[in-house]
Structures are given as C-alpha cells and as structure tokens.
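tool=predict chain=A
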Amino acid sequence: MAEEKVLIVDDSIELIHLLENILPYGGYHAVSATTGEEGLRLALDHLPDLILVDLELPDITGLRFLESLNQQGLAIPTIMMTGYGSEGVAARALRLGASGYLIKPFTTEEVLSSVEKALAVSRLRREKAHLAAMLDTYSRHFRTLSAIGQAMIDGLDQERFFQRIVEAALFITRAERCLLALVDRDSNQFRLVAVRGKAAPPGLFFFRQAGDARLQTALSEGASVRLHTTSDPPIALQTGETVRAVLQVPLRTREQVIGLLSADRQTGGLPFGKHDEQMLAILADYAVIAVAQIARTE
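tool=predict ok
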C-alpha cells in the first residue's frame, strides 16, 4: 500500500541512508532514529506501519526495544536487523512478537520482500478487525430494525411507534438529531410528529419548498438526499434550522410522498453514508406501513 510509513532504528548513518533510498522503491515513506530511545519516541509520535530495528543499539538492545513496544501497547510490525551469527537472538525476537529478521548485509530485494511480507500480514489483521467491527455494527442495527417490526406487530400506539422510529434512526446513524414529518391532510403541509435530539417540537408545520433547494428532491421526487458541508453557509433545513450534515429519506406510497424521515448533525462530524441511507429507508418503510394501518382503522 503506497505511502505506508516505515521507522528505521539503527546507529549506522550509512545503513539508514541505504534503507531511505531503498524503501521508496516499494512506495514506503521512511523516518529514522539512531538510538532506541529516540526510536521509541518516534514510534509513539508517528505510529509507523512498520519498524526496522537493529539488534545492537547504543543505548538498548533491539530485544529491549521490542519489549518496550509491547509494554506500551504498540502492536507495530517489527523486523529485527542483525549480523551473521546472531540468528539465535533473532529467533528470540520472533518469540517477542517480531514479524521477521534481516541478516546484514542484505540486498534491496530482501529488504522490500521482508517489508512487504510483514505489512501484508498486518493489513490482513486490520482488515479482519475492521470486518468484525462492521459485522457487529450491522448485527446491532438489524436487531434494532427487528425490534421496530415487533413493536408494529404488538400494536404500539401511533405516537409511541413514531417516536421509536426516530430513536432507532438516531441510534443507527449516530446523528445529533432525527425527526419524522407527515403530510397534513387539511393544509397539505408537513407536520413534525416525532423528534429525537435538540430540535423544533412536534407539531411544527413546514412547506415542501422550505429549506435548502437540494433537499426538495426528497419531497418532490421521492429520492433520498445526503448533504454535507464544512464551510459557510450551513445547510438550511425545512424547519428553519441549519446543519452541517443531513440525510433525508422520503416516506413513499405508490402514489405520493406522505412524509419525511430526517437525520442531521449540526456541529460537523462525518457525512452520512450509504449504509445510513439504507437503514433509514427501511425505517421509513415501517413508518409508511404504520400510516397505512392507521388509515384503514379510521
């Protein structure tokens, strides 16, 4: 992966210069230190993707360097550099968690091969951890959706059910505020029926044309809208408030848009993603079904 950072810790300026010339051929950026203490400080400051450390340093040994990394909880792939006859010590380094070792003098191909091999293992571990975290997140989200479906089956009253919808939307998207609005039959305006977070109170009305023109797509065309800005002016919502990020999903029947489910962040943060949009679309469908059930009983 291009621009991964490699920390070199060796007291030989000549060897450091050699490695600093070799590593860019693999797309790596090099930083260097000539003592173990300096190397540990740079490891904390830069959090490199890989460390190349000499077995014998002026102040501490490479083994002690590895132990210090472990004690400070820095799980950084590390390759031990050593001379001929020190393979036994290098084996001890492997037991301490080193990713491999290089015997001096080494070739360009040996350096790049060892670095790539160590980083490939590290990338796989990070990817595995990332996928596990995503799986856990998605599992929690789908349990939330299942609970909403069960609340519908159990016949939760309208006001509480719509409040459950916006609470679920807030949890899934990690927004600062969520609201649900439905078309008012008499005025043909939209009326807030449920709010979670600091926002205008339920009962507020707004027109289809209110707010940022880009948001009107959700109400006029029935298409989801995701907006994000880090500069001024902020995004104006239909309710008159301003935000830095917003996701709006329409409540649609076959004939028309009957409502709006909206999540926003007023103070910044990351934009909403596609997964957020997909989850809110499911919640919006639940709300549409609830509205249809209410209409049938009237």
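The radius of gyration is 29 Å. The chain has two domains: 4-127, 158-297.
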